[in-house]
Design goal:
With 229 residues, this protein is an alpha/beta fold. The chain is built from eight helices and ten strands. Helix content is 33%, strand content 22%. It has a five-stranded mixed beta sheet with strand order 1-10-9-2-8. The chain has a three-stranded parallel beta sheet with strand order 5-4-6, sandwiched between helices. A hairpin with a 4-residue loop joins strand 9 and strand 10. It is globular and about 60 Å long.
Length: 229
């Protein structure tokens, strides 16, 4: 606890939290002050000027980050036959049909992303009440309902992220590890921002991206200058 207090005091003494930063400067500061004994994630929060009560204004989708996230994403796949073989080649963590259904139903496995072949949807839909509230149901919008299982799994394993705004209109995402080269983290962030910009609802007339913050897993939170996006 004392070490944590010293770290926080050191950070507060050396960082201006009321200032806005260029993306590159913010990342370099976060790198400098990442002094915990593990490699932290670099996380972004994008505050959108949307009305989350209106379905058409909610933002959700997926994007392949050019330099990946550095995270080990566990993937479960509903498929059989040749499609199951493709999933195996792509190194999915769990593959099956009725057996996978039972494992998920009984909470015997942990996974981050659930993918389904189109043929398996009737079985997957039976899990909707159980995994739907957790945001784990496959979706066409997320790209997790597909018959191109090999490519989808490979992309997700490498660095394709799924994003959606929360009830406050904020998108939270991990865009890499803090030990990535700065230019890689910038490229990942800009890729995500550009994808979200393209999805701006037509009815939004005011400010769409209101605020962007960068932070590390256990570290500080910095505000990005609006001229950067």
């Amino acid at each position: 606890m004392s070490n944590l207090s010293k770290r926080i005091k050191f950070i507060k003494k050396n960082i201006n939290f009321y200032k806005t930063y260029k993306i590159q400067d913010a990342i370099n500061i976060l790198k400098k002050f990442s002094i915990v004994n593990f490699i932290e994630n670099l996380d972004v929060s994008i505050n959108l000027g949307i009305d989350t009560k209106k379905k058409k204004q909610n933002i959700l989708g997926n994007v392949l980050l050019p330099f990946g996230t550095g995270r080990n994403i566990k993937v479960a796949v509903f498929a059989e036959g040749l499609q199951a073989n493709d999933a195996k080649k792509a190194k999915a963590d769990y593959i099956g049909m009725k057996d996978l259904y039972e494992k998920i139903k009984k909470k015997k496995i942990n996974f981050k992303i659930l993918i389904s072949s189109k043929e398996a949807l009737p079985l997957v839909n039976k899990l909707a009440k159980k995994i739907g509230p957790k945001g784990l149901m496959p979706s066409l919008k997320f790209g997790t309902i597909t018959n191109n299982l090999y490519k989808t799994i490979k992309n997700i394993k490498f660095g394709q992220i799924i994003y959606k705004n929360d009830k406050n209109g904020i998108i939270h995402a991990t865009i890499g590890k803090i030990n990535f080269n700065t230019y890689k983290l910038i490229a990942n962030l800009e890729t995500l921002i550009n994808k979200i910009k393209k999805e701006k609802p037509q009815e939004i007339k005011g400010i769409y991206i209101k605020k962007i913050n960068l932070s590390t897993t256990m570290g500080i939170n910095l505000i990005i200058d609006k001229n950067e996006y």
